Amino acid sequence: MLDVTYEATDDLTPGRLAEIEEDRGRIRVRLDRTKPLKDVIRQLNVEIERLMSSARWFQLWGDEIVSRDTPDRPLRIEYLLHDGIPVDMGVGVAEDKGTVRVYICPAMSPAEFATWMNPATKNFLAGGCWFQLYAGEIIDNSPEPNKV
Known about the structure:
The chain has 148 residues and is an alpha+beta fold. It has helices at 37-52, 110-125; strands spanning 3-9, 18-23, 26-32, 57-61, 64-66, 76-81, 91-96, 99-104, 130-134, 137-139. 22% of the residues lie in helices and 36% in strands.
């Protein structure tokens, strides 16, 4: 099962505003709670680009599997501050072939952004169109089998 969590913290590596940790079926996004959201989002876009360039993530789009190497639509995620997103909505997620855009209310703090992203990401992944290739194993949003 895929699990993506966002958290605002004050213990990142010095000089970093965002860090992404990846493991089997899991991504942990850590954001600097003390910095302006616009600066955190700028760094988050650098970090997510690094993660996507690892070529371990895939999107199922119709009957096509989209990857970082898809010729006309390389897989990417973009975080965008957008004045059209009200505070009471927090974030909006839009997906197209090869692209996910997260539209973010710019009036939020990094902690509020993290709070909105956790349910939005869970809902997004429930669509079942993303998977990770990890050590030769395909991890999707299916429940993990019970291990006896």
